[in-house]
Amino acid sequence: MHRGGRESRPSDVPEAESSAPVRVTLRQTLGLWLLFALVLAWPFVLNAAWGVHVGFGDVHLYRLWALDGVEHGRWPVLDFDWIYPLGALVPIALLSPWAHDQIYESLFIGLTLMMVAVIMMAVRDRIGVRAAAWWLLFFLLLGPVAISRLDGIAAALATVALLVIVRRPRLATVLVLAAAWVKVAHAAWMIPLLVCSRRRLRDVLVPALLMTFLIGAIAVALGAQSHLFSFVDGQSGRRLQIESVAATPFHLLNAFGRPSGLYGNIQLAAWEFIGPGATRVAHILDVLMPVTVLAVGALTLAAVRRSRMPNHELLLLSLLATTLALLVFNKVGSAQYVVWLSSPVVASFALGADRDRVWRTIRGLTLVVAAGTQLIYPIGYDALIDGDAWAVVILVLRNAALVALLFVTCRTLWAASRPDRAALSTSTDRDC
Fold it and tell me: 82, CA 20 to 30 Å: which among 3, 19, 125, 274?
């Protein structure tokens, strides 16, 4: 008896990668560049309306770290513990010659925008104009945090990985690990990659081990081995940040006259809830988040074994569900984390028109999450801290959209993990 119809599974090669190059008109190309110009201009419009460098706070921290390295020879990870992995030091140090000047911040944003533009063109040529337009619209709706954080660079690397994963899976694994060494959240992507790969040893495990060995060798050569994993402790010590999904009940308590304590984390430029209840929730999330990620991996494994859905689509669903688990059950939940969602969603356009109905809801909800996030940060952040009703309502709706996204994605994976009824019926008839 055959299992779940695996032998008749459709090709894993997405339609856009198995067909001729996408034809793009001059008008479409000009439209994309106009949308890119809006992505470029919008943060400066916001800054003119809401104040200087609104939404660019983290870039200022990057400049201070670079300045400390240039002036005093003290570099994060190399000389002291840091909240980011070693790879995050690369873009920060790359621009360090300009750390004495405010131009550093503009150069960092320019670096991210350059990556966004390159990926826009690659997506346009490999997948199509709709995908490229969605990519830019997502960055426009998410606002300044999408282009002024290390997360934007990590998301760009992850997106390139998904663009090449069908034809060059080993390179894709290396790129995902490179993204993980910039923002560690992408390390969780290794679970879906392993589960969905048909050649796990060659395409995933060997490249991952080689990449890890290379990073370790670089760390030893730079004398950073004692601080290499300091980012783990740095994140574990964080409190419940006010824009996280789990912070929603505390905002509602504030709105109904039962205020919860707020703490301004000056070092990390973040606001966090304090008190016994918030601390307990943060500790629960420390356990719940990895458990949920593993549960998504188990669900994906069941879907791979039983589903007639292409492995490539299962991989994108699993990557998205994993990323959403990292967002929904994250005690930090910073606004820039939302940019992680962009990679698997934009890659879904390669699945072809026949799968659009499945992904249309996901793409729409992702854009809603991006827009809601920008309304929270930077536009409504002061109002959220003050407990203004409109800001709290937007946060509740944005968080509800994130939970809905996780539900839709996991429900699709769950449906794919169920045995194919037609195949079971045929197999039962044969056994009889």
Answer: 274
